[in-house]
Design a protein that fits this description.
Helices cover 39% and strands 12% of the residues. It is α+β, with helices and mostly antiparallel strands. The chain has a two-stranded antiparallel sheet with strand order 1-6. A hairpin with a 2-residue loop joins strand 4 and strand 5. The longest helix has 29 residues.
Amino acid sequence: MPSITPRGIIAAFAILSAANIALILYLFHILEGLVSVEREYTYVGDDFPAQLPLTLPAVGLVLSSDASHFSLYADDDWGSLFPLSDGFITLHPSPLTHAPATAQSSSPDGRTFLISMVHQLHCLDVLRVAFVANRTGAAQHAAHCLRYLRQAVLCHADATLEPDEPGVRDGRWEHAASGVGAVHRCRDWTALRRYMDEHPAEPFRV
């Protein structure tokens, strides 16, 4: 039986060490791809995130037929939906990506945006007021809101199942659904509201 020389032991140790290092580097490369690195933005031109960088917890919403709030004429109820600065917030770049102000900025180092949820609520309110006041002059604004809300609904693509409630109409059975009682999977809109209240848009600097 051949004996193992010290040189052979050293060679085997070197090979095993190299293999371990290669394995560690490979695993590090794999993990690096799995861990998302938060990108830094300058907020100049198109260099900004598509979504507010805020994690919103998942919540449930049970649709209700309660008509005691948010009626067509409840201006105060509808007004309570809108946060400070009407949903406009100012986001700032990190010190590493600091960029000078542009014409699209409201402050030397920030960029102002409108939160889409508030825009959608605003459009619902516009349609409500146009209906209540019969404001024919609001037709262009209402048309914009109908287009905007249609696309927002398609984007959300809510796949919640609403039980069929068939009924007879004009002597024929028809499918129908009120949606009342259906539980929708949502994102916590109260957390988003708190963020907007705590981070209102900064005033223009003249």
